[in-house]
Design brief:
Hypothetical protein af1432, mainly alpha
């Protein structure tokens, strides 16, 4: 089954940011760092990680803030939300130095420990770890919660490519049991989007 994943190029994202007056010098630096951290990275379906995940996550948050200015730290945090986890050169100290303690405080709760990304773990073990991860995010800054909800929506939107796999079914269960409650408490926008996407996926012939 062909993926219907969101896809957003850097130039398209820059245009959106410019139109919103949100392409600040700090956001520019975050765009550069995101490209440095993820330029060669691919998703499960072989698509470029930047265009199919990082940039679309920012796009979701721009949609959330369609009628009001988007906070700079939210845009920067979204661009960097996987950098600590995926880029060994982008350390906490470097994040603090090049961006700020505030940005680090947003993206650190979104960063899993290396042992939690062990590919040898089965889906039940991953689910248990993600339950703890989401519980921690529930105590994190609001920006962290919104970025994680945008991240989850993007991942669900990309999943028809691996429909029917154990990972797919874990994602469905996690979204129902962990992410919908988080969204219900923190963002009606993402609550409705996640709920609708789950309904679409459940009606797929897999």
């Amino acid at each position: 089954m062909k993926s219907q994943a969101p896809f957003l190029t850097e130039s398209e994202l820059r245009k959106q940011l410019e139109e919103r007056g949100a392409l600040t010098p700090l956001v520019e630096r975050a765009l550069v760092q995101a490209k440095r951290s993820h330029e060669t990275q691919k998703r499960d379906d072989g698509a470029p990680y930047l265009e199919e995940h990082i940039y679309p996550v920012v796009g979701e948050l721009l949609e959330l803030y369609a009628t009001r200015p988007i906070p700079e730290e939210l845009t920067v945090g979204a661009l960097l939300h996987d950098a600590l986890e995926d880029d060994l050169d982008f350390t906490e100290a470097r994040c603090r130095e090049e961006f700020s303690d505030k940005i680090l405080g947003i993206i650190k709760p979104l960063t899993k420990e290396k042992q939690d990304n062990n590919r040898a773990l089965d889906q039940k073990e991953v689910f248990a770890l993600n339950r703890k991860h989401v519980a921690a995010i529930a105590r994190a800054p609001e920006a962290s919660k919104l970025i994680k909800l945008a991240d989850r929506y993007n991942n669900l939107s990309s999943f028809p490519a691996i429909a029917g796999t154990p990972k797919y079914h874990r994602y469905i269960r996690e979204t129902e049991e962990l992410f919908l409650p988080l969204a219900e408490k923190n963002s009606e926008f993402f609550y409705q989007k996640l709920k609708k996407k789950l309904e679409e996926l459940k009606h797929m012939n897999v």
